[in-house]
Amino acid sequence: MSDFPSLAGQLLLAMPGIGDPRFDHAVIAMCAHDEQGALGIGIGDTLEGVGLHALMQQLDIDPGAVADAPVHIGGPVEMQRGFVLHSLDWAGEDTLKVQPTWGLTSTLDVLRAIAAGEGPRDWLVALGYAGWSAGQLDDEMCRHGWFSAPASEALLFRTGPRQRWRAAFEGVGIDPALLAAGAGTA
Predict the structure, then answer these.
(1) Distance from chain centroid for Cα 138
(2) Could you tell me where the DSSP H helices lie in the chain?
(3) Parallel, antiparallel, or unpaired: how do β-strands 123-133 and 70-73 relate?
(4) Is the dihedral of CA 132, 11, 30, 25 positive or negative?
(5) For 137-182, how does the pLDDT look when each residue is reduced to its tens digit (9 = 90+)?
(6) How far apart are CA 125 and CA 41, in angstroms?
(7) Residue 1: what pLDDT?
(8) Which family does it belong to (predicted)?
(9) How far apart are CA 40 and CA 131, in angstroms?
(10) What is the C-alpha to C-alpha distance for residues 21 and 70, in angstroms, rounded to an integer?
(11) Cα angle: 109, vertex 11, 104; to 5 degrees
(12) Which residues lie across from 131 on neighbouring strands?
């Protein structure tokens, strides 16, 4: 890994003009970042017409009394693969604990626990992920495109998906309306 500190546990925010429409106003909850590469789950947008109940029914899980919820666009990689970001009051056998704010589980046990009313207090479901090969994200962080910001339970679980980008910038004292779409030259 380069001199860049690990971004696991942070939010990665796409800057205006990032150049890739898949990441326009993206908010990515970074779950892993080390010398092997990086993995994050997009939490800034949801899939149209796909809710938690429909997803659970496709997986033969009775949703029980859990309220229907949107399913997030986790990223452009493996859109058929599901992930649940959740509070740390629940952990399954394969839960990755992302300190200090959340866990990441990609096995069906978390959906079954949520449906049974025995799952984590806070959670969100996503399909797909954003991934970077070894050193790739570090290189991207040195160029115009990404900004890291602290994550919080409020941003993850109590802020609407389309409000997270603005709220994350404002949380560190940046007015996103003042961000430029390109880098300057001297």
Answers:
(1) 18
(2) 52-58, 108-115, 136-141, 153-157, 164-171
(3) parallel
(4) negative
(5) 999 888 778 999 999 999 999 999 999 999 999 999 999 888 877 6
(6) 10
(7) 42
(8) Belongs to the UPF0301 (AlgH) family.
(9) 6
(10) 21
(11) 10
(12) 39
Would you call the peptide bond into 176 cis, given omega within 30 degrees of 0 as the criterion? no
Tens of pLDDT, residue by residue over 23-82, are: 889 999 999 999 999 999 999 999 999 999 999 999 999 999 999 999 999 999 999 999
Torsion of CA 153, 16, 47, 125, to 10 degrees: -20
**From its phi and psi, is residue 130 left (phi > 0), alpha (psi between -120 and 50) or beta?**
beta
Which residues are within 8 A (CB) of 167 and not within 5 positions of it... i.e. 6 or more apart?
155, 159
Please tell me the total number of residues recorded for the chain in this structure: 186
Please name every residue paired with 143 in a beta bridge, in sequence order, or none if there are none.
none
Pairing between strand 77-86 and 46-51? unpaired
Distance of CA 114 to the CA centre of its chain: 19
Structure tokens at 20: 């890739």
Q: How far apart are CA 81 and CA 120, in angstroms?
A: 20
First CA to last CA distance, the chain = 30
- Integer Rg of the chain from CA: 17
Third-level CATH fold of 10-174: VC0467-like (3.40.1740)
